[in-house]
Amino acid sequence: MANLGTKTATNAVARTRVWAIAAWASLGWALFTLTILHLVSSFDPLADPLSRYAFSDHGGGMLEASLLSFAVGVIAVRGALLASGITFPRTTSVLIYATATGLVGAALFPATFTPEIDPVSGRIHQYASLIAFLCLPAIAFSLLDRFKEVPGLTPSRVMLVRLLWIGLASLGLFGVSYVADALPTTPAITTIMTLLPVGFTQRIVFVVDFLLLAALLVTAIRTARLQQTDGR
């Protein structure tokens, strides 16, 4: 029976590793593509939101490819968590699929930055992005209680809590800058836009989201290894 438990734990580690590699590859490609797009585009990364890069003079299609790869990475993170033995409520799965769907929607429906883009497409892009931005940190939040039940995951839980606080702060800053960018120009609005350019705050949110997913992957791998150790 002990050998059976050890074999099961070893299989869990192997399955988790496969999903983790898929997730790292997808998320890494998304980040790499975005980095290259910023290098070849003439847009201002501080002032221009990511959505505008779909209309870049160079690197056409790279933003869409990055968002789609990011969506695949989110699904792969779910696979790694499940393979490691972490059980989570249906709410977490709904949040994961909502995040991936939001990213896909944002990729397929460009924002309305040029006259030829249908305003409906712009609305879909806006709401899809909002869903992704809000649901991704909620995924980590929904798993905190699960991680609390495992003593060996205390460092991972502490790391996630810290990232969540940073994520909430960055979302708040992005919300302020996004609203300010949409309002008529006044001295106060100009000050806000100078201190909190929408492109900069949006990229902070994106980086924190990437770090949250990376933290979840680390937690999945750690969980699988803990089970392997306990099975010996």
Automatic annotation (TrEMBL):
One Pfam family linked to the record: DUF998
Claim: Electron transport is one of the keywords in the record: no
Ranges annotated as spanning the membrane: 21-41, 61-82, 94-113, 125-147, 159-180, 200-221
Keywords assigned: Membrane, Transmembrane, Transmembrane helix
Entry annotated with the keyword Ligase: no
Coiled-coil annotated spans: none
Identification of the protein by name: DUF998 domain-containing protein
Organism: Prauserella endophytica
